[in-house]
Amino acid sequence: MTIDELFRRILRGHWVAIALCVLLPVAATTILAVRAPDMWHGAVRIQVSDDPSGSSNETVAMSARVLALATTPSLVAQSLDDIGVRRDAAAVAEHHVNAQQLGVSSVVEISVTDHDRAVAGRLASALATNVASFINRGSRKHFDKVVADLTNQIQSADRQRSKLAAAQQVTGRATSYQAQLAIRTLTQQINDLRQERTALAVADASRDRAVVVDTGLPEVTRAPSGLAARIALATLLGLMLGLAAAAALEVMRPKIGNARELARVLDAPLLHKGSGEPAELAESLAWVARRQGVDTVVLVPADQRKTWTALSLLSRLRSLQPQAPDRSPKSVPASAKGSKTAVLFDSNYNGELDELSDFGTVQFTELSDLRPTDEVAAGLVVVSAGSMPRRGLEHLDDIVKAGRWPVLGVFDGSSLPRELPREES
Predict the structure, then answer these.
(1) What pLDDT does residue 206 have?
(2) How far lies 132's CA from each of 109, 213, 229, 394, 395, in Å?
(3) 18 and 245 in contact (C-beta within 8 Å)?
(4) For residues 275, 382, 262 and 288, what is the CA-based torsion angle, rounded to 10 degrees?
(5) What sign does the CA torsion over 192, 197, 200, 205 have?
(6) Euclidean distance between the first and final Cα of the chain, in Å?
(7) What distance in Å separates the CA atoms of residue 168 and residue 174, rounded to the nearest whole number?
(8) Integer Cα distance of 193 and 375 in angstroms
(9) Which tens digits make up the pLDDT trace of 65-91?
(10) CA-to-CA distance for 402 and 396, rounded, in angstroms?
(11) Longest CA span, the chain
(12) Among 412, 407, 285, which Cα is nearest to 342's?
């Protein structure tokens, strides 16, 4: 079995299962999208730094920092409390908050989606304010601690210097000299600490601060539904599930995809129908029968559930009107002599046969009308109607074994009409 045949068996034999697996998730996605409330989109921009970004890496890091802060549940909960709205802060932070950089600038846009138009705008503004405030005071705690430690050291050194200055007035000359040395040391230490504290204050005053660019309530727009993308994903998921289900069904309940595959299974030739004219069909089948030494051709449906295939072909053969045709034998290619493959006759042959069901010594019938005198020289022509379960071949095997008849070939009857032609009175 080739890969093409395998895919043909899976796709054609189980296309209903594949279609259902695709249509169900697509329909569910569409229904959920139609029933879902409209979402609104509010966006606020904040400037994280006064200076333009030095490189794209700095811009990406800046945007990532803002996104991490904006999607922090505690900041989202604080923003919801500020506007007086009850929402699940964790769900809002995970599914309804986003931040993206604007080019290579230091401006980042924080966006919020909500089914309430007013809430979308107010929450975006409050969240941007809280993010900017956190950025500005994020390292303030450490800075205040360092400044407080420096102030305590200055005050401690100043107290020691004051004690030494007071003790110098009541001591002797030698002690007074040591005290003066200690006072000079403490004074130098105090000056160094004050300079360090001043440098920290200058650095704090000159560092960049995040600023909310948009003042007031931002403009709120309708958020895109994303239905096309979700339908595409649902289609892809359904197709994958459908192919998996079809492969599983093919393993558990294998099918025969078409007439050619059925002919290969039965080790019989595939009889082509040519132009489909009744006379041409009869001549072709009669030629095959004569080559096999068969006088009676029994038309048997491949699938018992589709008996109309054999009856329809038999009705087409019996629809021939008795006229006097040109009974000259048709030429058969020399390459076809001795071959089991059915050869079509000239498709331009439009002559009619002079008997209703007798073509030379060959006649056509169905299994129920087979006469005992015709059973000895009978042969089977299996009429296929497309795909069929492989276990459906059991009845064919029983017929062949019971009658010990040769299988002349497989006829593709997929294009035969389902309704039998009415016989004219």
Answers:
(1) 61
(2) 12, 10, 34, 78, 80
(3) yes
(4) -60
(5) negative
(6) 50
(7) 10
(8) 121
(9) 888 888 999 999 999 998 888 888 999
(10) 10
(11) 159
(12) 285
Which residue has tokens 């038309």? 299
Q: Quote the pLDDT of residue 5.
A: 65
pLDDT at 237: 92
Q: Residue 62 CA to chain centroid, in angstroms?
A: 34
pLDDT score, position 55: 64
SS (H, E, C) the chain: CCHHHHHHHHHHHCHHHHHHHHHHHHHHHHHHHHHCCCCEEEEEEEECCCCCCCCHHHHHHHHHHHHHHHCCHHHHHHHHHHHCCCCCHHHHHHHCEEEEECCCCCEEEEEEEECCHHHHHHHHHHHHHHHHHHHHHCCHHHHHHHHHHHHHHHHHHHHHHHHHHHHHCCCCHHHHHHHHHHHHHHHHHHHHHHHHHHHHHHHHHHCCCCEECCCCCCCEEECCCCHHHHHHHHHHHHHHHHHHHHHHHHHHCCEECCHHHHHHHHCCCEECCCCCCHHHHHHHHHHHHHHCCCCEEEEEECCHHHCHHHHHHHHHHHCCCCCCCCCCCCCCCHHHCCCCCCCCCCCCCCCCCCCCCEECCEEEEEHHHCCHHHCCCEEEEEEECCCEEHHHHHHHHHHHHHHCCCEEEEEECCCCCCCCCCCCC
At 422, the amino acid letter reads R
Strands 407-412 and 270-271: parallel
Please calculate the CA angle 408-316-390 and round it to the nearest 5 degrees.
45
The pLDDT value recorded for residue 321 is 41
Task: Give Cβ neighbours of residue 218 (< 8 Å, ≥ 6 apart).
Answer: 42, 43, 44, 121, 124, 125
Quick: pLDDT tens for 333-391.
433 333 333 333 333 333 333 333 445 567 888 888 888 877 788 888 888 887 777 77
Higher pLDDT, 423 or 9: 9
Report the alpha-carbon distance of residue 132 to residue 357 in Å, rounded: 95
Sign of the torsion angle spanned by Cα atoms 363, 366, 371, 372 = positive
Sequence-distant (≥ 6) Cβ neighbours of residue 1 within 8 angstroms: none
The secondary structure of 86-122 as a DSSP string is ---HHHHHHHSEEEEE-TTSSEEEEEEEESSHHHHHH
Contact 364, 332 (CB under 8 A): no
